[in-house]
Amino acid sequence: MKPTWDDVDARARGLGTHLLGRSRLEPLAQAADLPALAAALERDGFDTAGAGDSPAALDLAVRRSAAARMRTLARWCGRRAETLAVVFEDEDRRSLRAILRGALQGAAPQARLAGCIPTPSLSERLLEELAGAPAPSAVAALLVAWENPYGSALLEEASQQHPDPFRLESSLNRTFARRSLAGAGKAGRALREYVQEVIDLENAWSALLLAAQGGDGSPGECFLSGGRRLDRKRFETIAAGKSPAAALLCAAFVRTAFAEAFRSAGLSTLENAILTAQIREQARAMLRDPVGPAPILLYTLRLRAETVDLRRIIWGIALGAPATGLALGLVTA
Question: Does residue 333 fall inside a structural domain?
Answer without folding.
Answer: no
